[in-house]
């Protein structure tokens, strides 16, 4: 199990990516449902300041402070710089938790930042925020988890395994390989729709899908399934996970998604969705 999520539009949203002990958003009930995993969280990335995405943060910090668990680990919270709502909320949290027993750090970030998840001498994995379009007044981010990988340089492609091994021994592996970056995970946050440039070549795309029928959308603040599927087609992604689904679709979600599931299958894309009122595990 690598991903845990609970999400229902308007009510609450959070996504826990366990390989990097990273939580995206922290809506209501996140501490209750993650239970003792709250101690495993190292980083929290907030997409924006709407209540359904941040209201569980205070509870999470409080639980981590008071329950039995490892308090030596610090917790880092990253959020879109200049987001007023989040800044006020942080001020409040700091004021009411002035005697925390673990180290809590808050970092305002911009799309120019690279937040390193792994690698000391050389970056192996990092997070890159990007702007998304949501409501006018709200500075909102989506996030990529990017892995820095290495592959054999073109000029050595025709060599045998033995010849490559000799070169690697003589000059080091950096000499025969070059690094490239791979998006392994992309999360949209709340948005009208991600751009093709952002989703392209990402292994897993977590896209908000408030509306399963475009006609239900009144404002251009949230995404609809029709638009998302058209975006994913031709974008070379492996897995699409829909979340932030409106609870109005109740039991008909699977049926409404069926035609899109078939379209995506032809593209080689696996489709999953976070059912409102159900803990999602993948
Ligand atoms: Zn929301
Ligand atoms: Zn929102």
TrEMBL record:
<dbReference type="Pfam" id="PF00753">
    <property type="entry name" value="Lactamase_B"/>
</dbReference>
<feature type="domain" description="Metallo-beta-lactamase">
    <location>
        <begin position="37"/>
        <end position="67"/>
    </location>
</feature>
<dbReference type="InterPro" id="IPR001279">
    <property type="entry name" value="Metallo-B-lactamas"/>
</dbReference>
<dbReference type="InterPro" id="IPR036866">
    <property type="entry name" value="RibonucZ/Hydroxyglut_hydro"/>
</dbReference>
<protein>
    <submittedName>
        <fullName>MBL fold metallo-hydrolase</fullName>
    </submittedName>
</protein>
């Amino acid at each position: 199990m690598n991903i845990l999520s609970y999400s229902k539009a308007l009510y609450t949203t959070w996504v826990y990516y366990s390989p990097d002990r990273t939580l995206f958003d922290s809506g209501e009930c996140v501490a209750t449902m993650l239970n003792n995993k709250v101690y495993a969280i190292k980083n929290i990335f907030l997409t924006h300041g709407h209540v359904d995405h941040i209201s569980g943060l205070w509870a999470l910090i409080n639980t981590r402070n008071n329950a039995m668990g490892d308090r030596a680990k610090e917790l880092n919270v990253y959020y879109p710089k200049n987001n007023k709502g989040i800044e006020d909320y942080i001020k409040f949290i700091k004021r009411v938790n002035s005697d925390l027993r673990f180290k809590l750090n808050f970092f305002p970030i911009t799309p120019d930042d690279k937040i390193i998840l792994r690698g000391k001498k050389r970056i192996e994995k990092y997070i890159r925020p990007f702007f998304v379009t949501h409501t006018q007044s709200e500075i909102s981010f989506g996030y990529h988890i990017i892995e820095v990988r290495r592959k054999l340089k073109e000029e050595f492609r025709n060599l045998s395994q033995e010849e490559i091994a000799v070169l690697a021994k003589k000059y080091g592996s950096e000499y025969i390989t070059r690094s490239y970056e791979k998006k392994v995970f992309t999360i949209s946050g709340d948005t009208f729709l991600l751009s093709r440039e952002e989703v392209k070549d990402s292994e897993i795309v977590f896209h908000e899908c408030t509306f399963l029928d475009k006609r239900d959308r009144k404002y251009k603040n949230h995404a609809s399934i029709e638009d998302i599927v058209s975006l994913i087609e031709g974008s070379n992604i492996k897995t699409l996970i829909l979340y932030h689904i409106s609870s109005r679709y109740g039991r008909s979600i699977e049926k409404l998604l069926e035609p899109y599931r078939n379209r995506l299958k032809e593209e080689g894309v696996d489709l999953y969705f976070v059912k409102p009122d159900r803990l999602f595990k993948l």
